[in-house]
Amino acid sequence: MIAAASGMSCNVLVLNQHFLAVRVVNVRRAFSLLFRELAVVVHIEKGQYISYDFSEWCELSELARQFEPDAHDWIRTVRFDIAVPRIIRLAFYDRLPRQQVKFNRRNLYARDGNHCQYCGKKFPTTELSLDHVIPRSMGGKTTWENIVCACLKCNIRKGGRTPEQAGLKLITQPKKPRRNPVITIKLSDNRYASWKAFLDNAYWSVELK
């Protein structure tokens, strides 16, 4: 149904029936839920949260295309253009979001912003490794508080020693993030400003799907 366009690179925040954030999905998945009437669009208008089903959102998109095209990202279909929603709400899902941020490589890279925590430089993921601050040989654990991103040069320099023993200093003390780090990165993009109302300082674990 949906043709490839620039809007396909966007993400959409998914809420449950109680307006609690449960996950983030790509545009294709969001429109699939809308088209099958499993979700509705939540759109902010003059400070109010208005819900639209798929057909209503298509009609609104026609007006937006005429009067405020720069306010949206767009998907081009065979018959018309449709605005990419920022938020959708599931029609039949009331479970609460999980209260744990997944401890995985992706979230560790995101937490540290792809910066080596010893030299402070930013590297592509392929040029980073994950380092135990206190080496496992000294009893160091594999936890948020003991794992940091390290470039290959710093990792080799540190070896099986503590940062102090290797003459290195941590840029930032590692800790467990309160919110999924990938989502925190998304919130720095003005396109996703409307998410902030649903992603407060609670212990969210919204995952990218």
Order of helices and strands: EEHEEHEEEHEEHHE
What is the number of domains? 2
Q: How many separate helices?
A: 5
Number of E-state strands: 10
Low-confidence stretches: 1-5, 201-209
Give the termini separation: 20 Å
Query: Which strand order spans the largest sheet, edge to edge or round the barrel?
Result: 4-3-7-1-2-10
Write down the overall geometry. Answer: elongated
Radius of gyration, in Å, reads 21 Å
Biggest sheet record: 6 strands, mixed
User: Which percent range describes the beta-strand content?
Assistant: 15-25%
The proportion of residues forming helix, as a percent range, comes to: 10-25%
What does this structure look like?
This protein has helices spanning 27-35, 54-67, 105-111, 152-158, 181-186; strands at residues 11-15, 21-26, 39-45, 48-52, 74-76, 81-83, 87-90, 128-132, 147-151, 207-208. The chain has 209 residues and is α+β, with helices and mostly antiparallel strands. The chain has a six-stranded mixed β-sheet. Strands 5-6 form a two-stranded antiparallel sheet. Strand 3 and strand 4 form a beta hairpin. It is elongated, with a radius of gyration of 21 Å.
How are the elements arranged and paired?
Blueprint: E1 11-15, E2 21-26, H1 27-35, E3 39-45, E4 48-52, H2 54-67, E5 74-76, E6 81-83, E7 87-90, H3 105-111, E8 128-132, E9 147-151, H4 152-158, H5 181-186, E10 207-208
Parallel strand pairs: 1-7, 2-10
Antiparallel strand pairs: 1-2, 3-4, 3-7, 5-6, 8-9
